[in-house]
Amino acid sequence: MDKELITEEQGFKLYVAQDDMSPGSPREWDSNLGKMICWHRNYDLGDKHSFRDNQEFMAWWKEEGKGGVLLPLALLRYA
After folding, report:
1. If you ran DSSP here, which 8-state letter would residue 74 be given?
2. pLDDT (tens digit, 9 = 90+) per residue, 20-52?
3. 37 and 50 Cβ atoms separated by less than 8 Å
4. What is the pTM of this model?
């Protein structure tokens, strides 16, 4: 790992280095309380799923979603 000395003051040295051990997405390696089922034409959001659209998901939910909770997910757009 290459590191670059940025400054040295009062006996302390500040280095900047590239992190070679990227952890990836916490949605993939950590335990989650639920699943994010999302659709967006421009972004890849949420967890992997096989539902084509929200109507297909809602049909499945009415049959199989007993005991679960649906929560809204919103995106903010910054100008």
Report:
1. -
2. 777 777 777 777 888 889 988 888 888 889 999
3. no
4. 0.58
